[in-house]
Amino acid sequence: MQIDSLLIRDESKGMNEIKKFISLHKLQIRRIKAETFLNTSILYQKIDGKWDIHYYNYIRRRGMAIPYLYLALTSILRREKTWFETINPIKLDEFNQKIIIESLGRDKINLDSAPKFRRDYMQGFYLAFEISKLLEDNLITPKDAFMLFTDSELLIEHAGYYAALKRAGAKKEAKKIADFMWEADQEVFLKTGERINDCLEMNKIRYEDFFYVQQNHFPFLKTINFEEKFRAMKEKNDHELEFDIAISFAGQDREIAEKLATSLKNRGFDVFYDNFEKSKMWGKDLYEYLSTIYSTKAKYCVILISDNYNKKRWTRLERKAAQSRAFEEENEYILPLRIDDSSVPGILSTTGYLDYNTISETEIIETLIDKINNYGS
Question: What are the residue ranges of CATH 3.30.160 in the chain?
């Protein structure tokens, strides 16, 4: 990892802690580089599987390089190993646009701008979780968080800082942010901040939370009962395909299956993984239930191919159910993930697969997300 020499010189202790953070979370950082001019305080981008972080040299001279680097690294961590449950942005856009068109008609709002609004406002939610984590882990101080806040522009970002500081018990800094707001924006700001605080308490962001914030921002949307319409649409969708992914695995490979399932669930995807469905499975005829799940209820079935997989009775049932669906599908349905070099009956050696031993879990997750988001194309 390449690190700017001036940063090492001026912030040697802080950079040692930064290196520990990167190592602890196994983040792939290529370089941390100072820029004499940058149109933002800090910028990070992923190229060929590794992250480049560029920071405006002025923040180093202000003594704020370490807090900004922690914020960038925590944002990268959130993208790769989300520690809270969130929502699927593709599904959110789909549900949101359908509800608005159904309720108001296509001409009442510029739907082309809706994805940008969603990105901006979800970023405010994410920012709150990132700042809250940094405060909770004592990686930045409330004073640092307030200084980071002064660099933000959007009301939703202000509300995110406010909620994180309030939850951390930093009442003084939270009040300074509230006092900073224009009087005309106070009501929307406080309601948004309280809703984000609720999300921090639950450790999750729900579709309903986004709808609430959106209605606060656009009063003319308050005539729409988003939650009721969302529930109706989701129930209809669930009746057709309840899960984005169903995971089939042997018990000995549960640790891998759980990592994949949790990571996808935290990113807002619907995953069939037995430990998520204990209450639903209790008392059911599992032969019939699992056959239905793997043959009709998911967009894709991920099979963890291993020597153990071939030896289990229940995995044989799941595989056969998945293969019956694959036989009828025009598009691929079974997504093999190799744990070892074993072969599975009915899955040809020419079938494209991912190898768990040669690519990172992050890359596997990103590939799965891309696959789900492009379902049917």
Answer: 2-80
Q: Token digits for 164?
A: 């994180």
- Domain spanning 241-373: which CATH class is it, in words? alpha beta
d(CA 132, CA 140): 10
CATH classification of 2-80 is 3.30.160, yes or no?
yes
Burial class (CB in 10 A: 0-12, 13-18, 19+), 289: middle
Beta strand 334-338 pairing with 2-3 = unpaired
The boundaries of every CATH 3.40.50.10140 domain in the chain are: 241-373
Q: How many CB atoms lie within 10 A of CB 29?
A: 20
Return per-residue pLDDT of the chain as tens, 377 residues: 999 888 888 899 999 999 999 999 999 999 999 998 888 899 999 998 899 999 998 898 888 999 999 999 999 999 988 999 999 888 888 888 889 888 887 776 666 666 778 888 899 999 999 999 999 999 999 999 999 999 998 999 999 999 999 999 999 999 999 998 888 889 999 999 999 999 999 999 999 999 999 998 888 888 899 989 988 887 776 666 889 999 999 999 999 999 999 999 999 999 999 999 999 999 999 999 999 999 989 999 999 999 999 888 899 999 999 998 888 877 789 999 999 988 888 787 778 899 999 999 999 999 999 999 888 76
